[in-house]
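Write out structure tokens for ABC transporter, ATP-binding protein.
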Amino acid sequence: PESMQLWEDDVNIISEESLGSLFNIERAIYIDTPMALNAKNLADNVFLQRLHSNMTHSLGRTLDKSKMLLLRIARLLNGKISQSDSLLGETELYYERKDEHLKLPVEKIATGMKTFAYLYQLIKNGYLDDKTILMIDEPEVHLHPQWIVEYARLLVLIHKTLGTKLILASHDPDFIAAIKAIAKREEVLEETNFYISSSEEQECSYRYNFKWLGKDIEPIFESFN
């Protein structure tokens, strides 16, 4: 980029003379696909490798206030996510149905279920807290319409309960509306901001402008028409 600015609490982190450190963020997690749960996709992608490591290696803590979130996901999945070591010493994730009559490798379950499974693992392993920023690209893509609302509710509750900062990119009006409605009901709307992107019709088609909308999502809906 030709120029870059980064501020935290009105302090400029990036300047020509120095590069500072963020005090309120210790960890950034980026998710662009639930396929990170598939071991065969890891070979050539360092980002998926890191995400997969987060989902299979615990920090040795599960915050007490996160237990409600884990129970919510378990109810949605009608089961839980477990893990065990293979004969080759690799950690493998499994979906265990509540009745204990079904146990499948996570990579074999439906893609929509994987979307909840990776959040389950990140919460259980202690990676989501108030020092984490979680970035998710189009989380609604593989979800049933009803699960879109449940996923939006879960993300809002993760922020409210754990303090995790979220950056979400979405093209789904139902998901966007759900985020706003649930954030309002959970009394965290003041901490929620919406943006809309538009491409620069100039030299480079990969350049975008992001306009801050505050709490107003009408321009987003208008852009879908």
